Each structure stands twice: as C-alpha cells, then as structure tokens.
Amino acid sequence: MKNRLLIAILSLIISLPAFALDLGDAKSQGLVGEKINGYIGLIKESDEVKALIDEVNAKRKAAYAKVAAKNNLPIKDVELLAGKKLIEKAQSGEIVETQTGKWVKK
Amino acid sequence: MVKHTLFLASSVFLLTACTPKVEVAAPEKPITINLNVKIEHEIKIKVEKELDNLFDEKSDIF
Predict the structure, then answer these.
(1) Predicted complex: ipTM over 0.90
(2) Is the pTM for the entire model greater than 0.95?
C-alpha cells in the first residue's frame, strides 16, 4: 500500500511537464529559431509556440540580467554573446538567424 | 722624455675620449599603457564561462 502511494506520488512529479511544448522539440521541429539577440523567435505560428516563446524568453532575460549585473556589463552585451554561442551550438537541422536577419537551417 | 710625456698626454686624451656617455632622456609625454583590451578580453571569457554553465543548468530554456 505504501509502495503504491509512493509510486503514485513519484509518477505525478515525473509527469509534471515544464511546458506544454518542450523547447527541444520545438527547436527540432523547426517551430522556433535561435536569434542573434540571445532569444528564440517564432517560425511556425501557433498559440502553443507563442506561449513557449514568451515563457522561455522571459526566463532567459532574467538569467541574462543576473549575469550582466554580476559582471557589471550592459545586458545587451550578455544577450549578444549568448546569442552568438547559442547559434554556434545549435544542432544541425535546427533553425538559426543569420546576421542579416534571415532564418536558415543549420 | 718628451716622447714619454707626449705618450702620456695622448693616452690620457684617448682614455677620456673613450669614456662612454649614455644619456637617458625622460620622455616628454607620460607613458600610458592601455589595458582596456586585455581586461575586456578577460571579462568576455569569464562571461562566456558563466553562460556555458547557465546553458547546462537551465537546459529547459536554452
């Protein structure tokens, strides 16, 4: 009985999704792209994707702000550096923004 | 004797002529070393490291 309860609780915790749509999936499905400004951009319009983008970008902004404050840098510098790194480390098949603002598949 | 004096005089003259004279002139402008480039580079490397950690820690948003 105790075991069952434990399993029930564990499965509840494990199954709790961070997002309705996972960022990794959204990237590999080409729904979102990595932008040069350090945030993700919308490629395929849908409410679900929009919600994901808003949430991810808000969290990213908070994280960038922390790094910027810690190093006494303008947030813009951190965003651009992060954008460059994220585009570099994007997997092949994922979509990234070029310097001219176009989406390309890596 | 005369030869001797002449030799002495000339050698003294030659010796003084050979005394090295090094002049160190102070620069007119103060020497400034620009360290900005190096510091900026170090900050960039530090921030890059922090971002790498961030990407690993928060893989759900990166």
Answers:
(1) no
(2) no
